[in-house]
C-alpha cells in the first residue's frame, strides 16, 4: 500500500465528518452578518459587489491552480442554472425581503421549511424515498426551529410582498438542491464556483443599476461583512453544500438546514446582542433530536 495514501484518506474522512458542522457555522453566521452589511448598502448593490469580489478571487485562484473546466455545453448549462437558483433567487430574494420590512426571524423561519418541501418533492423528482422515520425527524426539526425563533420575540409579517420574496428565496434553494442532485456532475470547485458567481453578478449588477440607487457606505464594518460573505459563504459554504448534496441523499442534507435558525439565533446574540430566552434552548434540543433522527443511517 502506498504510504502517502494513508494520511490523505484519513484527511478526507475527517473533512467528510466535519463538513456539516463547518457549513452550519458559516451559513448561520451569514444571517446576522448580512443584516449588518445591509445597513450600509442596497441589497442588489451589496450582492453585486460580493459577487464581483468572489469572481476576482476565483480568477486569481484559477490562474494559479489551472482547474479542469466543464467539457460539454450541458455541464456549463447545469452549473449556470444552479448558480442562478442559489445566487440570484436565494441570496437576491433573501436580501430584498430583509429590506422590504420582513424581520430576520421570519425569514429564517420561512427558509427552515426547505427540508419539508425537499422531503415532499424528492421521491417525485430524484427518485429518493423518504422513510417514515425521516419524516418524524423532519417534523421535529421544524418544530424545534420554529420554537427557537418564536422564543426570540413576537413574529409578525409586515407585508405580503416581503413574505413572497422570502418564499421565492426558499423556492430557489430548494430547487437548487433538487436540480444539483438530479443533474449535477463532479466539477472542479474553482471553475464551478467561478461560473456560478459570474452568473450572479451578470444578473444582479444590471438589476441594481436599473432599479436601485446603488447606495454604498464604505465603512470598516461593511468591508468586514464583505470579506466574510465572500470567503466564508461564497467560497467555502456553498462549495460544501453542493459537495454534500452530490455525495449524500438530498433529504438528509436538506435536514441540516433545521440547525440554521438555532445557529442564527446564537450568532445574532454574539454579534448583535440579541438575547436568546431560556425556552429557546429547549426548542433547540428538539431541533437537534429531529435532525439526528432524520439523518441517521447516512452512508
From TrEMBL:
Keywords on record: Membrane, Transmembrane, Transmembrane helix
GO annotation, cellular component aspect: membrane
Residues annotated as domain EamA: 23-148, 161-294
Main location per the UniProt record: membrane
Compartmental location: Membrane
Keyword Membrane: yes
Positions of transmembrane segments: 14-34, 40-64, 76-96, 102-126, 135-154, 160-179, 191-209, 221-242, 254-273, 279-297
Domain of life from the UniProt record: Bacteria
Topological type in the membrane: Multi-pass membrane protein
Keyword Ubl conjugation found: no
PANTHER family: EAMA DOMAIN-CONTAINING PROTEIN, INNER MEMBRANE TRANSPORTER
UniProt record similarity statement: Belongs to the EamA transporter family.
Protein name: Multidrug DMT transporter permease
Species whose genome carries this gene: Caballeronia sordidicola
